[in-house]
């Protein structure tokens, strides 16, 4: 009976707080909180062995999501600055991804809800730890992408980080790379992000951008202008022929960017221009 292993044992005795199981030589406790379904004395059941806080071995009928022989996605449930990230492995106790195995920068550590692809490690004293999968371990999950994905939106989970950028794995099994130039904020390890495919490489992997498309980027400038107009009651003394210096002083935009943003608002029927001013569209007939 070793922590982190499975065994089929016989239910030897029922007690108030659970059951004692035996392999014929040794006995181990199965606490009632670790029982799944209905069981009876004399029945043979499969259990998994765990060490408790007092370093006592106990059995559970709960199946771990990962073992020292398997890898899988596990969810982060807590993060402790001087320790690392705790993940749910399907048992009553969470397991730790030690800080030494997390990124150097604390800002890109995973947060609760993020997911990591890991395996279980059992220390010499029976404690459970979790190790992140290496690139070689993740590689069999990959499938080749085809050119039809170009310019399409795709979502994936960050499983590896290097100085140049972040690697993601999608639910479909595609491997993507987000170069540092294709993001405004570095995603966290374990974070699921959505971006646009900007290249399908010959080896079947993807280059992905988290930057907005050009027309979407304009909307940020447009909303800034629209917000300014809201503050002024729906009108402003600027139009597409306004002085570039006046535009920059007010909005910190070049005249070209201002005209594109204003055009975006006009095209969407939100504003109109008259006599050197720009007004909310709903004011046109007033």
UniProtKB/TrEMBL annotation:
InterPro entries noted in UniProt: CvfB_fam, CvfB_S1_2nd, CvfB_S1_3rd, CvfB_S1_st, CvfB_WH, NA-bd_OB-fold, S1_domain, WH-like_DNA-bd_sf
Pfam families listed in its UniProt record: CvfB_1st, CvfB_2nd, S1_2, WHD_CvfB
Gene3D superfamilies xref list: Nucleic acid-binding proteins, Winged helix-like DNA-binding domain superfamily/Winged helix DNA-binding domain
Name listed for the protein in its UniProt record: S1 motif domain-containing protein
GO molecular function: nucleic acid binding
Homology family: Belongs to the CvfB family.
Domain S1 motif: 151-211
